[in-house]
Design goal:
The structure is a homodimer. The first copy, chain A, has about 280 residues and is α/β, with parallel strands linked by helices. Chain A is built from 11 helices and 9 strands. In chain A, strands 3-2-1-4-5-6 form a 6-stranded parallel beta sheet. In chain A, strands 7-8-9 form a 3-stranded mixed beta sheet, covered by helices on one side. In chain A, helix 4 runs parallel beside helix 5 and helix 7 crosses helix 10. The longest helix of chain A is centred in the last third of the chain and has 24 residues. The first copy, chain A, is elongated. The mean pLDDT of chain A is about 95. The interface between A and B is large, with 86 and 86 residues.
């Protein structure tokens, strides 16, 4: 399935991700429009040829003209926006997003949209530790995962268009998961690891340590630089799963510590062997 | 202080690190000798021009001829070796090592060596997740930390020779720490992070997750591929410090989890802000 070049694409929220989407889609010949909070962002996008037109207002015509709309907003702002303006979309419009949690979002958005306007959740698993349109760069999608989370309310056609969007943006691996499976996966692979990085930073305040930091420690804590508004919102939306992952991880760490305390070297070695074997599965294929 | 080119250097243990030392020092014009466990390792080193001569035996003359000796062995084997063969070193010989823990090692080795033979502990903070001389490569020292851990028993001259060795090998940052400060630093920056990576691998056995792994998760768990014999030995040698670091980290993780459980978003955000600020100090200068 190809997305025809005369389709009009609206991006709501021109940050790091929204900006990178705009850059890529404009370069590929689509008419890209944008609604975002700050005029300076629109100016930047226009100057850099990333969009055809943009506004900080709710432009009913721009919304009604969109064939495809991508939302790159904080979750609660996304929901509010659809509550207030979802009614302006035309029948047949396809709406997707970039939100990092799905269960608290997909059902709500689908329920809020008018008949004939489809929402298919998507999670582009790409990002940087920097923000804003100035840092946007379509290169960051290369080889990354793009996960589409349809429900039984979605048509096959809309799901395929959503997946094609991911491929067009350059994602290496475009797959489908239910919102539930997505949130379980992301709770372990992404959210738990961010929690670990944060706790590692807050548990030791010795500033002298920086002098001796190696690359392993830098790699491990790269994600400790964290946007607290966005991540606290994502954590709370997936709280039950994340809490259970934190408990499972904390239990294993305690098992390792107990083994040390009791000189139980065999248990330590066994955990290390399991770790080594399991880690091999995660190598890039 | 320069290390004169006519100095004979003995390397005991030709693995990843020992092999990389041999490669670099031979290239720079030193006579490098080696004692190691397997004949195939000696053969490899000779074929690749990494050493002048080597043996799997205890060659008393080779030991007595050494001006500088570097030990790259497991800690307990290092101690046994010195117990049995330390007497063969000549007066004025300078001995150093690559062991990742210092408190349980430095005093013991210094006490075992004959009068006039100096041991200065050193920790080259470089490594890979692979082993053996076949993977050795002096490039891995570039920009890394080399920490020398002298005691009041060491002469200034020997300490300077040891530091010069680190600079010659290409380390970017050659510093001194007491064995105690070294072990505290390494307990947090290296050992705790290895424990975290292991627990992260053992706490979830869902093989499907690999499909969705992003680079953040790969970075975080690169060190989960771990040599269980070496690391369990290093952990046990630094057990008191490591246990206390694990408790401090576990406490912060629990604090974050409790904040989630009680919808205390302000505490979560505060921890994230501290994390973000502190992580900025660890960026490469």
């Amino acid at each position: 399935m190809e997305i025809q070049k005369d389709k009009k694409i609206l991006i709501v929220g021109l940050g790091l991700l929204g900006g990178s989407y705009a850059q890529s889609l404009t370069r590929q010949g689509y008419e890209v429009y944008a609604i975002t909070r700050k005029q300076s962002t629109i100016d930047y996008a226009l100057e850099h040829g990333m969009i055809k037109a943009g506004t900080t207002q709710i432009d009913e015509k721009m919304i009604a003209d969109a064939d495809i709309a991508v939302f790159a907003l904080y979750p609660h702002i996304f929901i509010e926006w659809i509550e207030q303006n979802g009614k302006y979309f035309k029948k047949g419009a396809i709406i997707t997003d970039v939100t990092g949690v799905k269960c608290g979002i997909v059902d709500k958005i689908q329920a809020l949209l008018p008949e004939g306007v489809e929402f298919i959740g998507a999670h582009p698993m790409a990002g940087k530790e920097v923000y804003g349109i100035e840092n946007s760069n379509e290169e960051m999608f290369k080889g990354a995962n793009y996960i589409v989370t349809p429900t039984e309310k979605n048509s096959r056609e809309a799901v395929e268009i959503c997946k094609e969007l991911g491929r067009m943006l350059g994602f290496g691996n475009v797959t489908e998961l239910t919102p539930q499976k997505h949130d379980r996966m992301i709770g372990f692979l992404s959210q738990l690891t961010h929690c670990i990085a944060v706790a590692l930073m807050t548990c030791n305040d010795d500033a002298n340590l920086c002098k001796y930091t190696g690359d392993s420690f830098r790699d491990l804590t790269r994600i400790a630089r964290i946007n607290e508004d966005m991540w606290s919102e994502l954590f709370m939306l997936n709280k039950d799963i994340l809490i259970s992952e934190m408990k499972a991880f904390g239990g294993e760490l305690e098992k390792l510590r107990r083994a040390m305390e009791t000189d139980d070297v065999e248990t330590m070695k066994k955990m290390m062997r399991v770790s080594t074997e399991r880690r091999a599965m995660f190598d890039k294929k």
